[in-house]
Design brief:
The structure holds 2 protein chains of 2 kinds. Chain A has a domain of 37 residues. In chain A, strand 1 and strand 2 form a beta hairpin. Chain A contains 3 helices and 2 strands. In chain A, 37% of the residues lie in helices and 5% in strands. By secondary structure, chain A is mainly alpha-helical. A two-stranded antiparallel ribbon of chain A has the order 1-2. Chain B folds into 3 domains: 188 residues, Amidase signature (AS) enzymes (Alpha-Beta Complex); 130 residues, no CATH class; 64 residues, no CATH class. In chain B, helix 3 packs parallel to helix 4 and helix 7 crosses helix 9. Classes of the chains: A mainly alpha, B alpha/beta. Chains A and B meet through helix 1 and helix 2 of A and helix 7, helix 8, helix 9, helix 10 and helix 11 of B.
């Protein structure tokens, strides 16, 4: 659980990790029923009429921004 | 109500995170003189926007959400931002970083969620209408718990430019009001294609293939709560007395909708919420180095439910589990959508209760996340398929309101409004 939290870049306590592992057990048991689904080939051909496109970013937000740069700690 | 009167009334309910000092119209139109509250995940230029989270502490919206712009043009008086579950993750408004909202019908009970503040503000008469957002039932479920009308429009119908995202393939902004007529009016104001949201649809995207014929399908489901069961049977009788044909229908995979939802939603949320790193927005907690800033900020800035869902999303997307959970859920989603769309070739609408029980006591379900998730059983299919759905007040269990839900085919909000007005006797 602590490794997962590390992947998600969230600091959690040992106690929370312990609780989460119990909770995940019941949640994953419930949602795990989707594994029974068989792939339905004809559905692959169905395309949504909605598609994603990219656009330019809007104006930068305030916060830890200095001029044209985002302020971060020294890396090297 | 004036802002002072709203503040006074809100001491008991806590529907608002903030009631604005100035209450004025920004334009002149259909909503002139009408008051409206907006959920705290919608950007209103120059005002704070927190999505109920500490991590956005102090964040001021740099622009108007498209829906807010449309409200301004229509002359609405935007009176404040309403409380919500943190990042819209919850069914009770208890996970807000800004305190619990109380149900106006019983202050010991939750108003539903995540748009609990918006529903409570309308139910308590503090505003004429409100906007919420609905990712898995977050407009319809609080509307049912508070005895008001709530609509989740077709996916893509309303622009989400300026909505703080939770799960982008489900999220949709929706209106809440005391009547279907008011919900319909507000819907027509906020709907429409928007170049700033490439997922918005045009009127031609889903051409209407079937004429409204007053036919309703009821899928198979089980209910533990006797009063909800009786109330639902009464609603069926009422539709029949109004000349509707109500028949049982079989949707083989609908029962799996909740499992599908609780895989795809956390997956998308974990990805969407990666942007909250303590650098670009709001709250920041110092760590020992750059990467540790992320860990500290996200650990302290996100609440328990948000941490839980991000980590769950990380799990179902992680290599080795991706195919087993996320991959399968995406397949199942297609199947459920196909079944629903086929159903709407046969009948105009699908009818279910909105919730399996009336509003529960504050704190009652907080310790068991799965129990809370199961409350979304009747609402998530609409987000999975993109179909529009409306919750209508259908009576009471004691003093607690109950709701029924109608779902229609993609693009067929008109059928929801027609049947909704019939059910609530709004035509005479």
């Amino acid at each position: 659980m602590l490794d997962l939290a590390k992947l998600a870049r969230i600091k959690i306590s040992d106690e929370e990790a312990e609780n989460l592992s119990h909770e995940f057990e019941s949640i994953l048991k419930y949602v795990g029923e989707v594994s029974k689904f068989k792939k339905v080939n004809k559905l692959d051909k169905e395309k949504s009429p909605i598609r994603n496109v990219m656009r330019e970013d809007g104006e930068a937000h305030k916060g830890r921004v200095g001029g044209e740069y985002i302020k971060v700690k020294k890396i090297l | 109500m004036t802002p002072e009167e709203i503040r006074e009334k809100d001491r008991e309910i806590h529907a608002f995170v903030e009631v604005f000092g100035e209450a004025r119209s920004f334009g002149d139109g259909t909503l002139s003189g009408k008051t409206i509250a907006i959920k705290d995940n919608l950007l209103f230029e120059g005002h704070l926007a927190s999505a109920g989270s500490k991590i956005l502490e102090g964040f001021v919206a740099p622009y108007d959400a498209t829906v807010v712009k449309k409200l301004k043009e229509a002359g609405a008086i935007i009176v404040g931002r309403t409380n919500m579950d943190e990042f819209a993750m919850g069914s009770s408004t208890e996970s807000s970083s800004y305190g619990v909202t109380r149900n106006p019908h019983d202050p010991e009970r939750v108003p539903g969620g995540s748009s609990g503040g918006s529903a409570a503000a309308v139910a308590a008469g503090m505003v004429d209408t409100a906007l919420g957002s609905d990712t898995g039932g977050s407009v319809r479920q609080p509307a049912a718990f508070c005895g008001v009308v709530g609509l989740k429009p077709t996916y893509g119908r309303v622009s989400r430019n300026g909505l703080i995202a939770m799960a982008s393939s489900f999220d949709q902004i929706g209106p809440i009001a005391k009547s279907v007529k008011d919900v319909e009016t507000l819907y027509h104001i906020i709907a429409g294609q928007d170049p700033l949201d490439s997922t918005t649809i045009s009127d031609k995207t889903y051409p209407a293939s079937k004429k409204f014929s007053k036919t309703i399908g009821v899928p198979e489901f089980s209910l533990q709560n006797e009063e909800v069961k009786n109330n639902f049977e009464e609603a069926v009788k009422k539709f029949k007395s109004l000349g509707y044909e109500v028949r049982e229908v079989n949707l083989e995979n609908l029962k799996h909708a909740l499992a599908v939802y609780y895989i795809i939603m956390p997956a998308e949320a974990s990805s969407n919420l990666a942007r909250f790193d303590g650098i670009r927005y709001g709250f920041h907690k110092e760590g020992k180095d750059s990467i540790d800033d992320y860990f500290e900020t996200r650990g302290a800035g996100f609440g328990q439910e948000v941490r839980r869902r991000i980590i769950l999303g990380t799990y179902v997307l992680s290599s080795g589990y991706y195919d087993e959970y996320y991959g399968k859920a995406v397949e199942a989603r297609k199947l459920i959508t196909r079944e629903l769309r086929d159903l709407f070739q046969e009948v105009d609408l699908m009818l279910t209760p909105t919730t399996p029980s009336p509003a529960w006591k504050i704190g009652e379900k907080k310790s068991d996340p799965l129990e809370m998730y199961l409350e979304d059983i009747f609402t998530v299919h609409a987000n999975i398929s993109g179909c529009p759905a409306i919750s209508l007040p259908s009576g009471f269990s004691g003093k607690l309101p109950l709701g029924i839900e109608l779902t229609a085919d993609l693009g067929r909000e008109d059928n929801l409004f027609a049947a909704g007005k019939d059910f609530l006797n709004e035509n005479g």
